[in-house]
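Supplementary Methods S3. Input chains for the assembly prediction are listed below.
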Amino acid sequence: MRWSRRHILDTDDWSTEEIEAVLDTTGAMVEVLSRPVRRAPPLRGRTVVLFFAESSTRTRVSFELAARTLSADVVNISASGSSVEKGESLYDTVRTLQALGGDVVVMRHSSSGAPYFVSERTDAAVINAGDGWHAHPTQGLLDAYTLRGALGHLAKKRIVIVGDVVHSRVARSDINALVPLGATITLSGPPTLMPSAWRCGQAPAGTTYEMDLDRALDGADAVIALRLQKERQEGGLLPSLREYTRVWGLTEARVSLMRPGAPVMHPGPMNEGVEIDAAVAHGARSLVERQVTNGVAVRMALLYLLVGTPTLEAS
Amino acid sequence: MERRELEAKGYLVTPGFIDLHAHLREPGFEESETIASGARAALRGGFTTICAMPNTEPAIDTPGLVAEVIARGRAAAAARVLPIATITRGRAGRELADLIELSAAGAIAFSDDGSPVDDARLFRHALEYARTKDLLIIEHAQDTSLSRSGAMHEGVVSARLGLPGIPSAAEETAVARDIAIAEMTGARLHLTHLSTRGAIASIRDAKSRGIRITCDVTPHHLAMTDDWVAGSRAFAWEREGHGREAPLARNGPAPAVDADRFAQSQARLSLEKPPARAVPYDSSIKVNPPLRDWSDVRALWEGLVDGTVDAIATDHAPHASVRKNVEFDQAAFGISGLETAVSLVLGGVAAGWADRNTVIRALTTGPARVLGIQRHDDDWIAIDLDSAWTVAAEELVSMGKNTPLLGRTLRGRVVYAVVGGKARYDGGVRGASPVGSR
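Predicted structure tokens for the full assembly:
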């Protein structure tokens, strides 16, 4: 299939073919990463601007590695906090980015929808590296790639996503990447951390809500635990982290309710002992480290599809 | 020009519209609007009288400030400007403003709009005290503990977009509180910009029990739904499979005289396709109360048709671009609405959601009754019902260009406005020379 998207803002309107095209390209990138010299030329002469208005070492480093492996020049711009307080508006930053003339802007921002704002005001291709509660497309795609690798395919597989769904861009992007590949999703977690519409019969296609985690995990093919922010308790959404762990934490006993060998994933960083036990996080079922490795390959695939020249041969 | 001349030319001539709810931003936010620019924008929209909300800087909470707004309104020589004063000093929600003195200075009503009076005890006292002169209290009914961090209607769209929601319950619980306090005090209470079906049902019930309560809805809540935040640009009546509802009138179908026009409008509706989609998270759609879902919009129209809703008010909320050209969650709430109001509601009329007389009443006699004022017989306007026009920032008289309708072609436009017998706006009446336009 011919790649036609200019930006990667959200995967909510992607076809199955588009998702598969990215996953197949990711496979080629995994091969590049396994070479003795991990370097390929398709982004030579291209500039990738990493604009992280919200700090995230992991995702930024992953994108940086992806861009450098494909021979791009990389520029880092970090701006912290909300634009209004700091006096520098996002609009100002975008004009600066535009003047600098990067080919790709990879952006992380605390406001849902901010990548749309930027994409409307710059000529560069924009990749959303996480916006507010809204989307984290590369995480969804890397989770799909990782799960496909572990399970062979996703058709009729049932994946559990447990935790703070309402505030989670990862959950939304996982749904958007996994459902078109044939998976069904069971969402679990406290009702206060679930979008109210999704609890009341309006969950997205391919997903259902099951408050009881044991029932959700029973016979499931995989589970993705979400990070629980400690401030949810202070916000009155949870009585205590202890109670959360007791009811929705991933323990060895719980994960054994799934099909034998069913994998466990987490987007990181993990709160071990809160949403996931250390034994599960580092146990035989855990794909957490493979997620990190695959993340670089998925980001390479997207950079390549957006602005790469069509050769992966080493120069 | 005379009314009869304009009628003979095929224009619809009606009494001038009265807007219960406009933000003119002066004093304090003159980069967004001034009393003069707002009063001129009003005439473009057919409003010959507008009530100016007091959430300015300083807030309108002293007789001197009331007098100043009146003086600047007169000087504008456009629409009549009636000042609304605050309920509480500085709109701080802690102590009552001098309601009787403010009324004597010319305040037409009292509101802390933008914020509700959160303290129910103080709100009770405001209503009790207002009884001394039978003053009108206008309340922005919203439980701020439920709405505080929200950016849009809480529902399936906010869940998908990852935006914090303002649940319908934030309005519905506040309306229930306000009705109970209105009942216990017997004061005149008007709830403005209601947006939810639950609120409309509560008002209907309160009116049936004889409680002195009135309410208004805005053109944007009558026309748009929460999926506009996700990029939809279909008016509620353009939604797939919902263009041709039977008219809502309880007492039979729409008047026969309009049948031809109705059929023509329906034919036009199918020709004038809305732009397929816009970019999501457009901050011009951010408004409080937020755009709700389709069933809420239907309930507002039902309330309009059965008389539960007394008036259509614009909640005209102009903002300088710097307050809107930011991330969605950082953007100011509000839509610049005076100049598009009548075109929007006529869209619903063309779709058969109410008859034309119903919406004209809600723009004229309805708000006059809420305010308890006589309409001025020599305030009148002429509307070209067939004129199609495209909303363009540079054409809007309001300094607030913050409307999601930019670039949209609407039908029905005010072409002539007379205030106190003087032609104050002429938008190009056929065969006449322009007066005071722009």
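DSSP finds 15 helices and 14 strands in chain B. The mean pLDDT of chain B is 92.
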